Amino acid sequence: MRIVIVTGMSGAGKITALRMLEDAGYYCVDNLPVPLIDKFTELVSMPGSEITKAALGLDARAGQPIGELPRILPGVKNENGLEVLFMEASDETLQKRYKTSRRRHPLSPDGEVAEGIKRERELLSEIKKGADYIIDTSGLLTRDLKKEIDRIFVDNREYNSLMIRLVSFGFKYGIPADCDLVFDVRFLPNPFYVDNLKVKTGLDSDVRDYVCQTGEAEQFLDKLTDMLNFLIPGYINEGKNQLVVGIGCTGGRHRSVTIAGKLYDRLKDSGNYGLSLKHRDIGNG
Prior knowledge:
Number of helices: 10
Strand order of the largest sheet: 2-3-1-4-5
Order of helices and strands: EHEHEHEHHEHEEHHHEHE
Radius of gyration: 22 Å
Helix content: 40-55%
């Protein structure tokens, strides 16, 4: 029997994660009252139960005493092997999502989203510390979130709650504000000055071939991959949940897209962490 509590920051993707778990065969219950968790786990774990996988969605909606969860969880986890998935996102990301959806934050009935986020972080801090898995959805596409849900709860692969985001960008449009590491690939051959390549991007094979023609690109990738493989275990041990790696060229359409894509291919099956790829400026030109 596998029982997962899905909780976390409002707007971080809890409902989406629950739907993905439901599609994966989990029996899902959203907003179950905290005091009933123990009773629910007892019922679904009874001999003869047809439920083998269940997920419970818990959040800070009005009337939900989620503050009681840290007190209840240890006993339930020890007795039933229950797991906790905590959905996280940056304050900036959450505020943008609330602004787009025009919804009120559940802990801010007066409409001050920032204050609601602050109160919720304080309320959920102990729950996050005790979570088995943390997925940071800041900048994460739905398909990337599904990969992480499947990795943990379908494929049963080891997961260390580190999400690595690779972002290609153009220096002329500014370095992404949330980058932890930034690498400049403007030393590589530039397809922009080749007429039949200028209008294409690093997603096209002939552009990638041009960028990698001298062998310097592969040499750079070898060194960068080695460095990241050295750094990543340290970040995991320190409890870091997100690492944003920026790969930049002048316009963000050719060289950075090529290198970021190749780096993604090298890392995607090499570790027990989440991985996503975004080409921020590929549409500019």
